[in-house]
Every structure is written in structure tokens, then in C-alpha cells.
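Side project, low priority. Logging it here so it doesn't get lost.
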Amino acid sequence: LIYTNAVFFGKIHSSSSYAPGQEFLENNIRVKPDLDALGALGDAGWYCIGAILWAMNQTLPTTVTALPNVARNSAGVILTCSASLYWEKEETVATFYCSFIAHETMDLRVYGSNGTCYLYDFIIPFGEDSASFNFTSGAKFVDLHIGWNVKPQVVEVTSQLPQEGYMIQEFANLVKAIKVSRSKPESKWPHTSRITQLMLDAVNKSIDTGFQPVHM
């Protein structure tokens, strides 16, 4: 992200959607109001909101406003929704879209004052052995607008294990550090979980109140 005098001017968009089929839509716990009442918002939307908060250094927005494209199943569980988030101080707007009835997407796009960054598979990578993102910085149109002075750069990170393997490895290391070295749990993880849930609740409240802004 590009900050100028601690103020970020830009736009962020994230999307998480997939269409698992009729069996999922009828029987999965994610579409049952007594098991996971937030549906696509609580599942796919969690990743979208988490990615946006990561891009904004875990800063809560000023307002959250759901957008009027909500789809629900017969039990009232959300199958599709989106929202707009606004940071007044940073003059930044973020949007996200999540769905159980749209083609697979797992995008994160960050547009800053002096650069852009795109991730196309930020939740489940296209392959288990590597992940990548594109970024462009300092781009300008060349004379007569016949092209760009720079092209997007691709950064690829290779992996020896599936991401689930690294997750278990990291969890084991954290437990070992606490048990053996008497370290304390990292406070950023519960904080991140809490503010992500606050955002989910704000989006849901905005939906329930007729898409009115919710002030954070």
C-alpha cells in the first residue's frame, strides 16, 4: 500500500464466491439458520473482510453499508451479498462480494496513490506448490497514449507444503513456544478475529435495516 503523510488514497475490492451445487445448498451447515445463520457472509465474506482489514492495517472503517443485491434461500440464509466500507480519514473505499451461487472467485485488488496490487487466489491457491501476485508501481501512459511505461510485475512464492500443512506447523510452534518457552499468545490473532466479526455483524445489520449505513 502507498501512504502519503500517513494517509492512504485508494480503493480496495475483494471477492469470494463459489457454486457448490444443489446438494450443498440444501444440506450444508452453511445454509442452515440454526447452524450458520450468516451463510455466504459468514463463510466466504469472512475472507473478503479479513483481506480488506489486512490491507488497511486492521483499522475499522468509519461506516459500513450493505448493497441491495442480497439473495437468500427459503430459510432466510444469505446466499449472496456485497457491501461498501468507507474510511473517512484515509479517504478510502472498499467493496466486497461473496456468494454461494456464483462462479469461483478469490480476488483481492488494491488501488493506491502510486501503485496497484492484484491477487487472484488469495484463499485457496491455484496450485499447492506456489502462489503469486501482480503489482504495478509508477505506471504512466507513454507519448500519444500508445502504451504504458512499465508492465505489471509478478511475484511468485514457492511452497514445499500445502497451506494447511503450514497452518498446522505454525499452530504447533505457537503451542510449543507457550508451553516450553513460557511465551504469551500473540494478541494480534484474537484482535483480528474480533474486528472481522464486528464487520460481519455490521454488514448483517445494514442488510436487516434496509441497507442503511452502520457507523463503527
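Brief comment: Residues 10-161+189-215 form a domain with the Dihydrodipicolinate Reductase; domain 2 fold (CATH 3.30.360.10).
Revisit when time allows.
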